[in-house]
Automatic annotation (TrEMBL):
This is Nitroreductase family protein. Residues 37-205 form the Nitroreductase domain. InterPro entries: Nitroreductase, Nitroreductase-like, Nitroreductase/BluB. The keyword Amino-acid biosynthesis does not apply. It comes from the Bacteria. Gene3D superfamilies: NADH Oxidase (3.40.109.10). It holds the Pfam family Nitroreductase. The keyword Magnesium does not apply. CDD domains: iodotyrosine_dehalogenase (cd02144). It comes from Ruegeria alba.
Length: 230
């Protein structure tokens, strides 16, 4: 992506500008909040397919996220192949069995009880798409020379947030899954050693009998998550 000849600074006029009244700004903020508060983490998926162009568009949205030095240190692998999803599920469940068998510790397992999770991860094969998020530790110039990426976890986390919002805005449901360790994903998906898998996102439509844990809808009030210094 990057060429050494493109590393010079040149300012250009702001290409996109939105002029809204304060009332319109508040209305837009409230409308987006209303949309996002109806996002649910779903573990039960229907067999309704999701067209690839939808996933592509959501990934393009993720790609607009800000990043350290604009290096965009992320890569997304969208998986729809049933055999590959089955392999990912098999290897993820091996890690999950070790996790629930004691690897996580009693306190962590206790904290998960109200969520109702266990080592069985049907969503990894039931969901029509799995999007695996990779963080790129370093990149390469067009001449093959390696360069360092900066603020990699922060940048990838922002892009992943953009992706989750885009998927929900498109009318889809998703589940974030983080088996630990996840190095098996590099082998399964043919990604280089410079990339670290950070998350598997199951994406699709909810099953008719989909449920969510009641406790998951309990959110902290604004007073507990924000402080204003005016």
């Amino acid at each position: 992506m990057f060429a050494r000849t493109q590393l010079n600074y040149r300012a250009v006029p702001l290409p996109d500008r939105t002029e809204l009244t304060d009332a319109q700004i508040l209305a837009a903020a409230e409308a987006f909040h209303d949309t996002m508060r109806r996002r649910h983490t779903v573990r039960n998926y229907s067999n309704r397919p999701v067209p690839r162009p939808v996933i592509e568009t959501c990934l393009r949205t993720a790609g607009t996220a800000p990043s350290g030095a604009n290096h965009q240190p992320w890569h997304f692998v969208a998986v729809a192949n049933p055999a590959l999803k089955a392999r990912i599920r098999q290897e993820a469940e091996e890690e999950e069995r070790r996790f629930y068998a004691g690897g996580a510790g009693d306190e962590w397992i206790k904290a998960l009880e109200p969520i109702g999770t266990n080592a069985v991860k049907e969503h990894l094969t039931d969901a029509p798409w799995l999007i695996v998020v990779f963080a790129q530790r370093w990149g390469q110039f067009d001449d093959g020379t390696r360069y360092k990426n900066y603020y990699v976890p922060e940048s990838v986390n922002i892009a992943t947030g953009f992706l989750l919002a885009a998927l929900h805005h498109a009318g889809l449901c998703e589940l974030t899954h983080t088996p630990n360790p996840m190095r098996f994903l590099n082998n399964a998906l043919g990604r280089p050693a410079s990339e670290k898998p950070t998350m598997i996102i199951a994406v699709g439509h909810p099953a008719a009998n989909a449920t969510v844990p009641e406790v998951a809808k309990i959110k902290k009030p604004l007073s507990e998550i924000a402080t204003f210094a005016e």
